[in-house]
Amino acid sequence: MNILITGSPGVGKTTLLFKIENKVRAQRYSIGGMHCPAILENGKRTGFHILDIASGRKGILASVQGNKGPTIGKYRVNLEDIREIGILALEKALETSDYIFIDEIAPMELKSSSFSPVVWEVLESKKPVVAVIHQRSRHPFILKVKNREDVVIFNLTVENRNQVLEEILELLGCISAE
């Protein structure tokens, strides 16, 4: 089962993903994958970390202070940390985790030519996958993922957040949201 969460920036996609992870973990399942939380300095976003959910290993996905790597807007993307932390986290999750979480499948991560093949392998696996995916991107890989026959896409809004949580937990095997 492949579940994709999309929605406008700031609507709560990552927060929803954390809630799902906590419920799955509470059921004693192992989880793996990656997160890309914002780096805030004096209340301003200056980049994004890349974090291995299972090991806690952390690096830099992108930063305004970066001096090498491709750019997305004002950010320089750190291809080495995508490979050494994000991709390795997904490969390890394929081997050892019951559930795989990805936050997120988006243009920054896709600057690494190695990222999309591993994401595709994860989606092809029999393991339940819950991923945040960029809403407006026309990137060919993002469109390909959204068009898979085995995905269920939830478009998150402020109004439907609680309902979507319940629906996803039900899809993942009747895990109660209570």
UniProtKB/TrEMBL annotation:
<dbReference type="InterPro" id="IPR027417">
    <property type="entry name" value="P-loop_NTPase"/>
</dbReference>
<keyword id="KW-0808">Transferase</keyword>
<dbReference type="Pfam" id="PF03266">
    <property type="entry name" value="NTPase_1"/>
</dbReference>
<keyword id="KW-0067">ATP-binding</keyword>
<feature type="binding site">
    <location>
        <begin position="7"/>
        <end position="14"/>
    </location>
    <ligand>
        <name>ATP</name>
    </ligand>
</feature>
<dbReference type="GO" id="GO:0017111">
    <property type="term" value="F:ribonucleoside triphosphate phosphatase activity"/>
</dbReference>
<dbReference type="GO" id="GO:0016301">
    <property type="term" value="F:kinase activity"/>
</dbReference>
<protein>
    <recommendedName>
        <fullName>Nucleoside-triphosphatase BRM9_1820</fullName>
        <ecNumber>3.6.1.15</ecNumber>
    </recommendedName>
</protein>
<comment type="function">
    <text>Has nucleotide phosphatase activity towards ATP, GTP, CTP, TTP and UTP. May hydrolyze nucleoside diphosphates with lower efficiency.</text>
</comment>
<comment type="similarity">
    <text>Belongs to the THEP1 NTPase family.</text>
</comment>
<keyword id="KW-0547">Nucleotide-binding</keyword>
<dbReference type="InterPro" id="IPR004948">
    <property type="entry name" value="Nuc-triphosphatase_THEP1"/>
</dbReference>
<keyword id="KW-0378">Hydrolase</keyword>
<keyword id="KW-0418">Kinase</keyword>
<dbReference type="GO" id="GO:0005524">
    <property type="term" value="F:ATP binding"/>
</dbReference>
